[in-house]
Design brief:
Blueprint (H helix, E strand, L loop, with lengths): L1 E7 L2 H17 L4 E8 L2 H18 L7 E5 L7 H9 L6 E5 L13 H8 L14 H12 L12 H7 L2 H7 L1 H18 L1
Parallel strand pairs: 1-2, 1-3, 3-4
Helix pairs in contact: 1-6, 4-6, 7-8
């Protein structure tokens, strides 16, 4: 059993990253024990919660999980810049970054076939523009266009979309998604070996 501590900006990260991590691990036949440490109040809180967590574990003798997953949107800062913010930290365990560029809701729109399977009507993979709330709006719009009523901002079926998703197709459509999936797979294999 691989222990993983997760940090995210908000409930969207929780609702998307959890099933995605579980699916990747399941495909590799690796059992995970996920513990969400923080999933509130945006990027600044993610960085602070991670810092506090590492400090506290260090003070307690360093019983670190095998894996730490940090999920935070690029938020128009760019994928590489946001990645550097965390890669420069001294983390004494395996770190995997999920940095959707620009926002995580875009990941749910990458595979129109999965969207059709879940909602009965497909969607187009969206362009990549930096505009606050753009992908939240596109997600809810696509759900309305499928004749459904989004209840939780479109996140209520996130797990179903992740399960139906062709991970390889989504990876080809989005560099940030591909980077996360590749890093997650590689890290799990290294931990297991």
């Amino acid at each position: 059993m691989v222990r993983a501590a997760l940090f995210g900006e908000d409930s969207a990260h929780y609702q998307i990253i959890t099933p995605l991590v579980n699916r990747i691990a399941s495909e590799q036949r690796i059992a995970l024990e996920l513990e969400w440490i923080s999933a509130v109040r945006g990027h600044g809180r993610v960085a602070q919660a991670l810092h506090d967590y590492l400090r506290d574990l260090g003070n307690q003798g360093g019983l670190y999980p095998e894996l730490i997953i940090v999920a935070t949107d690029a938020n128009c800062q760019g994928l590489n810049r946001r990645t550097r913010e965390f890669r420069d930290l001294q983390i004494p365990t395996t770190l995997v970054l999920a940095i959707p560029d620009p926002h995580i809701e875009r990941w749910l729109l990458l595979d129109g076939s999965a969207f059709r399977e879940v909602y009965g009507r497909g969607c187009s993979a969206p362009d990549q523009k930096c505009d606050r709330d753009r992908y939240k709006q596109l997600l809810t719009q696509a759900i309305y266009e499928a004749g459904r009523q989004p209840i939780l901002g479109g996140l209520e079926r996130a797990s179903d979309l992740i399960q139906a998703m062709d991970i390889e197709r989504a990876s080809r459509a989005d560099e940030s998604f591909d980077r996360f999936v590749t890093d997650m797979r590689r890290s799990l294999l290294q931990i297991q070996s």
